[in-house]
Amino acid sequence: MVHEEVEETAADIAEMEIRGAATIARAAADALRTQAHESEADSPEAFREELRAAARRLHETRPTAVSLPNALRYVLRGMEGDSVVDLRASVVETVEEFEAELDVAQENLGQVGANRLRDGDTVMTHCHSTDALSCVKAALEDGKEISAVVKETRPRKQGHITARQLREWGVDVTLVVDNAARRYLDDVDHVLVGADSIAADGSVVNKIGTSGLAVNARERGVPVMVAAQTLKLHPDTLTGHTVEIEMRDESEVLTESERADIAAGDDPEDPGLTVENPAFDVTPPRYVDAIVTERGQFPPESIVTLMRELYGGGTTEPWAKQE
Ligand SMILES: O=C(COP(=O)(O)O)[C@H](O)[C@H](O)COP(=O)(O)O
Fold first, then answer.
1. Burial per residue of 259-285, b for 16 or more beta-carbon CB atoms within 10 angstroms, e otherwise
2. Is the minimum distance from the CB of 62 to ligand 1 under 6 angstroms?
3. 206 is an annotated ligand-binding site residue
4. Where are the strands (E) in 89-135, listed by range?
């Protein structure tokens, strides 16, 4: 029932071949369009259940970036019609609308963020965030010279993607190991990061290491700017839900031979080595100076007003099986 290309997209998201909250959202919406295009459903209800099943498959891939369920909701809410032909057309049209909104949102967000960057500023980045880099791109287009200290971001080294993109734009890059961040903060004018989810209290969920960087930045007096489209606002947190932090496989941290070497003396019956690999962490609002969105910039404590405006009607799970 779920088309093989949807299964492929789901696998790519789960294995981080497709990664980053905005990119994941775009891929998920595109997968639902494929499901609609390729559906051979012989009734409107069968078509609707196919799209719900595809959305459930995509939803179960990664739990932390709210852009994924927000994208799935957006598309399924646009599915309407009394025939398969009309239902298919509504899904295709809704995905195209979603993609256009993503493009405009990231560009507008970039302009808001660029206004906070001065000519000659140095930013420190963590992980790879297309929302964050849209601010740098807009600043460069405004004729500002920007340089960057890029944290490699263990264990998957997404900082290399950021470094490559910045070099393509002609931005001078200093690549550092994550543990060197505090040392370089004295040479930095802004910490500039993205977000996977933003909670109603202004907490920012982003790649593991963001919270430590924000604490160090506050101690060093460096402002922390979080670039996040409103797609990253997590509506379930309006009603007290917490954001699940994805725990990824130890193989991203330790190879099997490294594990065997470390645990060489272990009693196989009583293995004492545990490797934990949380993929994200939570930065409290007190360490965030501004949340930059396509709707403007907000101090973290007031992001809830925007969240209520956009998502106040509460959230549903339109992908749930219908009884
Ligand atoms: O934490 C990550 C990516 O984690 P992973 O590599 O595990 O997906 C990014 O900072 C956010 O997703 C924002 O990215 P964007 O601004 O592109 O949405």
1. beeeeeeeeeeeeeeeeebebbbebeb
2. no
3. yes
4. 122-125
Whole-model pTM over 0.95: yes
- Strand locations in 47-108, DSSP E? none
Q: Is the dihedral of CA 178, 184, 188, 190 positive or negative?
A: positive
Q: Which of 158, 197, 211, 225 to mutate to test the pocket of ligand 1 (most atoms within 8 A of CB)?
A: 158
Phi, psi of 12 (to 5 degrees): -65, -35
Give the whole-angstrom CA distance, residue 199 versus residue 190. Answer: 22
Q: Which domains does the chain have, with CATH numbers?
A: 4-107 (1.20.120.420), 115-239+278-311 (3.40.50.10470)
Q: For 260-313, what is each residue's pLDDT tens digit?
A: 999 998 888 888 999 999 999 999 999 999 999 999 999 999 999 999 999 987
Cα gap 250→270, rounded to integer Å: 18
